[in-house]
Specification:
30% of the residues lie in helices and 17% in strands. It is an alpha/beta fold. Strand 9 (234-239), helix 8 and strand 10 (277-283) form a beta-alpha-beta unit. Bound molecules: manganese (II) ion (MN).
Length: 319
């Protein structure tokens, strides 16, 4: 197998132009030919406290280069698997963002996700605040119903407040209204947030399964994965504030008591084995609060490993 070293360049991770995992840049969204397409959604006007997630796509892209060594895949000795050796990833760049205009910015994000779906690739959208999940889910209109796995500190189930329906406290509520969303599992939810008691009651009434970090840990990652409806396609939305601020400080609304790396990684591995994954977003990385870059590195590492799990499962199961 070629490792690329014979091409005349070593191409170490700190060299070159920065795309996600230094994958090819595909600015023409009408000719996507890949297994995975990365889309940046640098919109943070939906935040209710510290802004800064607009720089999330840049931060995560830059951190992702750490995982771009040209070793023809990533060998994991614990799993005895070489991940991502044949997965074609392209980076579409960012959706155009119109400052102060949530509707148009969200529409531009939805256009990108639609283009990815039409090309038959897996959409992976890097936010941006969690409101960017709304156009991501909108772009699945007409799709077979799917379940949402949300990994987050906050329930994000506010219906409307002061006329705001599309901020970063609303996305799971908006998703629950879509006929193509069959239900959701919301994991990592803890502490105070913009969602009040009635939001939890509404979520449960619509069939949500809500687990805190402590409840998820008590069950273990495999048992949590088994709570998702077997056979359902799954869309995964990861808010980086699901993680403990001690490992992920670079986010607008940190919440102590969060997950550590393997809590989430093992959950994702079990879910990827059991379900077809139809889309992913990872949101709320705000590099300005991330002095060591550990938050962006965590985000990139989670995404790369998740993609590895998904395409390894596809290879194994021929789906
Ligand atoms: Mn969130």
């Amino acid at each position: 197998m070629s490792h690329g070293y014979d091409a005349g360049r070593l191409n170490l991770p700190f060299t070159g132009i920065c795309t996600f995992a230094r994958s090819p840049y595909q600015p023409d969204w009408s000719t996507i030919d890949a297994d995975v397409a990365i889309l940046g959604a640098p919109f943070d006007a939906g935040t209710q406290w510290r802004a800064g997630a607009r720089f999330g796509p840049r931060g995560v892209r830059e951190a992702s280069t750490l995982f771009s060594f040209g070793h023809a895949g990533a060998y994991d000795h614990e799993d005895d698997v070489t991940y991502l050796f044949n997965t074609r990833i392209v980076d579409l760049g960012d959706a155009d963002i119109i400052h102060t205009d949530t509707a148009q910015s969200h529409a531009n994000i939805a256009s990108g996700v639609r283009a990815i779906r039409e090309a038959g690739a897996l959409p992976v959208v890097i936010g941006g605040d969690h409101s960017i999940n709304i156009p991501c889910i909108d772009a699945f209109e007409g799709a077979d119903p799917f379940h949402i796995l949300q990994i987050d500190a906050h329930l994000d189930f506010v219906d409307e407040r002061h006329g705001v329906r599309n901020g970063h406290g609303n996305p799971m509520r908006r998703a629950s209204e879509k006929p193509w969303v069959s239900g959701m599992t919301q994991v990592g939810i803890r502490n105070v947030s913009s969602t009040a008691r009635e939001g939890y009651e509404d979520a449960r009434a619509r069939g949500s399964d809500i687990l805190s970090v402590r409840q998820a840990r008590a069950l273990g990652p495999e048992a949590v994965a088994h709570r998702l409806p077997l056979g359902a396609p799954v869309y995964i939305t990861i808010d980086i504030d699901a993680f403990c601020p001690s490992i992920a400080p670079g986010t607008g609304t940190p919440s102590h008591g969060g997950f550590l790396y393997y809590d989430v990684l093992e959950l994702l591995q079990h879910v990827a084995r059991r379900h077809k994954i139809v889309g992913i977003d990872l949101v709320e990385v705000a590099p300005d609060y991330d002095p060591t870059g550990s938050t962006s590195i965590l985000a990139a590492q989670v995404l790369m490993n998740l993609l590895g799990f998904i395409f390894h499962a596809k290879d194994q199961q021929g789906r």
